[in-house]
Each structure stands twice: as structure tokens, then as C-alpha cells.
Design a protein that fits this description.
Distance between the termini: 44 Å
CATH topology: Rossmann fold
Oligomer: single chain
Radius of gyration: 22 Å
CATH superfamily: P-loop containing nucleotide triphosphate hydrolases
Number of helices: 9
Order of helices and strands: HEHEHEHHEHHHEH
Largest sheet: 5 strands, parallel
Strand order of the largest sheet: 2-3-1-4-5
Length: 296
Amino acid sequence: MKKSDKKSEGKSDRKSDLSPAQPAIDEAQEPAPGSGKLKNKAYERELARLHVELVKLQEWAVHTGAKICVVFEGRDGAGKGGVIKAMTERVSPRVFRVVALPAPTEREKSQMYIQRYVPHLPAAGEIVIFDRSWYNRAGVERVMGFCTEDQSKRFLDTVPGMEKSIVESGIILLKYWLEVSEEEQTRRLAARINDGRKIWKLSPMDLKSYSRWYDYSRARDDMFLASDTSWAPWYVLTSDDKKRARLNAITHLLHHIPYKVVPREKVELPKRQKPHGYKDPDYAYRRVPELTWPSE
């Protein structure tokens, strides 16, 4: 992918706003592409540390009423679901809401395009993560012919203003594009064919989109050119290495939100009440069988 020469105007260095709770990003320590797979033990250790920070972010958002919106886009097989799962597996689904909308209904098709997405934007104390978003119109809908070229162009003309309104309303908006190579996408999609756990991820639409790599590349380039703004920039996440991509995405998100540790009282378990004559009933429970599983 070509690097854009366009500079984001008004872009500030957010490191000065960071609290001590936030992990610093040291680019000198980041592994170079192709430097080897991250070992599971190191990955799990770092992910656990980042999960603690995400809980701090969650408590800060609820305490302050912050509104955070995170958009994940990318080709099929780029790893969006894995990043989102890693980001949300240790936090409350009532605070971290994942939005993955199905195909629009006939009624929704007759609405103003952005209308079906607006109700899902975060209210105070919410962190909303879009697994694909309004940028469907610039990507899959354009490439697969679900909208006209004119409709896609009109969307790209209006989306910067729409996102400026979102940001000016007090929402922190972060947009990520997961960039996967042709070889890695092929490997991942082929692996789904005979894997009963993943076959649901491989739809006829995925197969059609796979064959249109360069149509998607052109659509991505046009999308960046139109919507990579100073108030809502695109961040490109290299995702051939799934583990590194997940850690990099979470670290980057934490780095760009000025959260702080919320004071809380020390938690102690209270004493349990006495039974006061209670006895377990003689009841024939329908128990789930306790099977024998191998220890290793």
C-alpha cells in the first residue's frame, strides 16, 4: 500500500495527555515485520496486562461519562473478529458494545444511508466497537455492486462532515484498517474450508470478494483519500501476525484515549450469614453428567 503524503492538520501529540496508567508505545522496541511468531506465553502475559488497562479504561468511561467509538475495517480474513474478541473478552458487554449489523432490511434500504448506524453510536459511559461500519458503502457495497458508483462517491463526499459532527458531539472516534497480505488472506480463507469451527465464516460473498482483490484495493485507496482527516484519521494495522496485531491494536487504542485510574474503595468479602436451620433439600436434581477428561 502506498504511503500517503497527506499530513493531518491540527494533529496533536497525545502522549502528553497520557496518565501513568497507560502503556507507553516505544516504536524502537516493536518487532520488525517477519521477525518471527510471538510465543504463546509472551502473548498471553502481555495480553493479560493490557486487559487490566482495558478494565481501567472501562471504569474511567463509566465514571466520567466518556463516549468512545471504535471502527474496524479490512478485507475478509484480515483478523477483525480476533482483535475485537481479544479487546472485549475481559470487560463488561454492557460497557463495551460490539455492533456487527446484518444486511439491511428493505425498510433500511429506503432510509438515509447513515440512518441505521446512528442509533448504535455510544451514549455516556459506553465504548462501541463496530465490526464493519458505515464504510460498507465505500467497500463491500461498492465492490460487490450493492450500491452505484455515484452512491459510493456521494457517501465519501459527505462522510468527513458526518464524522466531524460525531467528534464535535464529544465522541472519541478511532478508525482502524487491518491490512492483510494476499498470501495470508489466501491461507486463512483456505483453512476455513475444512475446519468445522470456522466454516460459518466462509460465505459465498467471501468467495466472491476474495476474487476481487484489486477492486478492494482501489476502493480502500479512494476511502483513505476521502476520509483520512485530522479529526478522524485512519490507522493502518498490519495483521499478518494475529497475535502481534491484537496487542498492537489494544496498545494503540489505550494510547489514544486519555483515561485515568478511577479511585475505588478496597474490596473485602463480607461475612456469610449463618444457616439458621437451613438444610439442603432432598431433591432429585437433573445433574449434568461429570465426564472424565484427559488431564493433559
